[in-house]
Design brief:
single chain, about 210 residues, alpha/beta, Rossmann fold, 6-stranded mixed β-sheet, two-stranded antiparallel sheet, 5 helices, 10 strands
């Protein structure tokens, strides 16, 4: 079987309220292509954390509870050691922007300092890294608007005002995926297949 991403490393940044099917999709599909996937989060000084996601079922009568354990701290990793860096959808980016210590009042000067924000910001500065942001994920960059300014993107309407105010150029693409050089954005998890294929193709093109 052809493995066009053999030897490539993928970092997926996630938090509680991730979408289980999204993470499973990356783990399965990147593995098929030969890439190694690492799940990263901020561990707040612990050796590992159990993240939780509760997603309404289609009939809205019950909820499916999903959990996974993350044992890689984003603060201990260098973004430049990865070929692809993805921020997971849903409200992961909101939680990843929490300023340590937990409960801190914070300040405007500290907004860009959370480990996950710093990690993704450094990835944005490296054109050889393919960056992926799906759904609400661009919230991870609003603390560093200079990295969003002038970039062509698509996102969920919930985050659109913030992304627009940060200087990004919203592209209402009918296919709901936008490729802007090394930055790939998708409107929502419903578009994950096209979004994933855009990430893969961009990663292949960067290395050819």
């Amino acid at each position: 079987m052809n493995k066009p991403l053999k030897g490539k490393k993928v970092a997926v940044l996630l938090e509680t309220e991730y979408i289980a099917a999204e993470i499973e999709y990356y783990q399965r599909e990147f593995s098929k292509l030969g890439a190694e996937v690492e799940l990263l989060s901020y561990l707040w000084g612990a050796k590992s954390r159990q993240l939780v996601c509760d997603i309404d079922s289609p009939d809205r009568l019950v909820k499916d509870i999903h959990t996974l354990v993350v044992d890689i701290d984003v603060a201990d990793r260098d973004a430049n050691n990865y070929d692809i860096v993805i921020v997971a959808a849903n409200y992961c980016s909101v939680r990843l922007r929490e300023i340590p210590p937990m409960g801190s009042l914070g300040s405007p000067e500290l907004l860009a300092t959370p480990p996950a924000v710093d990690f993704f910001a450094k990835a944005m500065l490296n054109k050889k890294i393919v960056k992926g942001a799906l759904c609400h994920a661009l919230w991870i960059l609003t603390p560093v608007p200079e990295l969003l300014k002038g970039r062509k993107v698509i996102c969920h309407t919930v985050v659109l005002a913030d992304v627009h105010n940060a200087g990004a150029i919203f592209v209402p693409a009918p296919e709901k995926v936008v490729i802007d050089d090394d930055l790939i954005t998708g409107r929502s998890f419903a578009d994950v297949e096209a979004y994933f294929q855009a990430i893969v193709q961009t990663a292949i093109n960067i290395n050819t």
